[in-house]
Amino acid sequence: MKLNNIELQFDDFATEMTKLKNEKHFDYLVTIIGEDFGEEGLGCIYILENTESHERCSVRTIAKQIGEEYVIPTTINLWNAANLLEREVFDFLGIKFLGHPDMRRLFMRNDFKGYPLRKDFDASPEANMFPTTDEPESDFTTEWNLDKQGNLVATQHRMFDEDDFIVNLGPNHPSMHGVLRLQTVLDGETVKHIYPHLGYIHRGMEKMCESMTYPQTLAFTDRLNYLCAMMHRHALVGVIEEGMGIELSDRIQYIRTIMDELQRIDNHLLFLGTCAQDLSALTAFLYCMRDREHVLNVMEETTGGRLIQNYYRIGGLQDDIDPNFVQNVKTLCKYLRPMVQEYLDVFGDNVITHQRLEGIGPMNLEDCINYAVTGPAGRAAGWHNDVRKNHPYAMYGKVDFEEVTMTGADSMARYMVHIKEIYQSLNIIEQLIDNIPEGEFYIKQKPIIKVPEGQWFFSVEGGAGEFGVYLDSRGDKSPYRLKMRPMGLTLTGAFDKMLKGQKLADLVATGAAIDFVIPDIDR
């Protein structure tokens, strides 16, 4: 969508955002985009959605400057999803959110010098912004507010009580699906709080995009979530194509939709396998990996890749589909349908599975929306959040499929949503595979691609939730600001709510059922 921002001044911001939430029912905070707007100063764009009408709007506000500091009122009192989203903006731009109870860095080290997404950030080796000692840690968080005289005042909040027992899950790989550290506060074996520590694999992709041409930025998407490479690149080429006004052929749209769904099956098969493995069921993992190989074989014959899929490009596809692609996809669909029941027989309907997943990591509908728990995890609580239905792209508005929702609102329901979504992906593919029209697989572009001035946001339904890309173009061959809305950041931010009062072992089971991939979060 092309952004037509609602402009809010600092003094009116809190009141007007409250009206948008409570009176106009914009109850889903999609993302917060921090940006250095140049001469206008630092500020944020908030993308909101009304979950009843699925209408979206964008709000822009410029931070108030107090001395050398920049401040914006927090929105965490309206949307809990703002917790980590505002910390991300603070981390990269230095904007302090007034009233936020935990203004610590999120991805960068606590002693990192500077704010990387500011345009005047000095990234030279001489700047010495990379500390060489161990990272200092504190038991306190900081809340910033303005006193009656308009001065910025800091308040310290203690994170741990004296009798709290702290266990770090991660940043080692087992059960954390990557280098994620969850600082877990326990009372015996009962979880009291979870503080996520991110950024162990942060690579500064959004910053690097500012100095790259648009075709060069595409390679990053495959390295965010290697199980959703097609969908992630679809979002990036989609926002660029929308900005440029490129009209794609039906052949391109058909093939992209089929490839997206093959990638979704790939993602869900690995999810089912690793979910079982996290609960010590190795056989189910082997079954899922066996069948995932068949999916990758079909994709590889066209794309040339198995993990990294360099297939979508601005204006279409890298190459046409393989001559055997149609027949092999049909054979794959016929093979996979009975196999899904096999996963349930081996693991999904096992008595141990029910005991480990039922009632574990509960998150009701209202909380899922408030914490922006999208994808299968949100649909397990009955939230109709599928981007393919609410904001159709490619061929999704023309195919018949069901949006899988459940009411269990726990880890077992999340597991079952993934099972049922494999059937729906097969339904979508079977509707399209025999009807791929003739036409161009690539709409030729100029050697140097430039996007007209403007701001756009394009999102897709990834394997674990909504993945979106925001683009601010100033008419150059490189983006002025490119921001990715990861699937897993808000999922990780909901762990504290999901797991309070649960057992330590339930944290591992909930993490298995949430389906997050760390490079997607860290970028």
From TrEMBL:
Domain NADH-quinone oxidoreductase subunit D: 278-447, 449-523
Family membership noted in the UniProt record: In the C-terminal section; belongs to the complex I 49 kDa subunit family.
TM ranges: none
Places the protein is found: Cell inner membrane
Single GO MF annotation: NADH dehydrogenase (ubiquinone) activity
Record-annotated NADH:ubiquinone oxidoreductase 30kDa subunit domain positions: 10-124
Keywords carried by this UniProt record: Cell membrane, Membrane, Multifunctional enzyme, NAD
Quaternary structure and partners: NDH-1 is composed of 13 different subunits. Subunits NuoB, CD, E, F, and G constitute the peripheral sector of the complex.
UniProt membrane topology term: Peripheral membrane protein
Organism: Segatella maculosa OT 289
One cellular component term from this protein's GO annotations in UniProt: plasma membrane
Stated name of the protein: NADH-quinone oxidoreductase subunit D domain-containing protein
Catalytic function, reaction form: a quinone + NADH + 5 H(+)(in) = a quinol + NAD(+) + 4 H(+)(out)
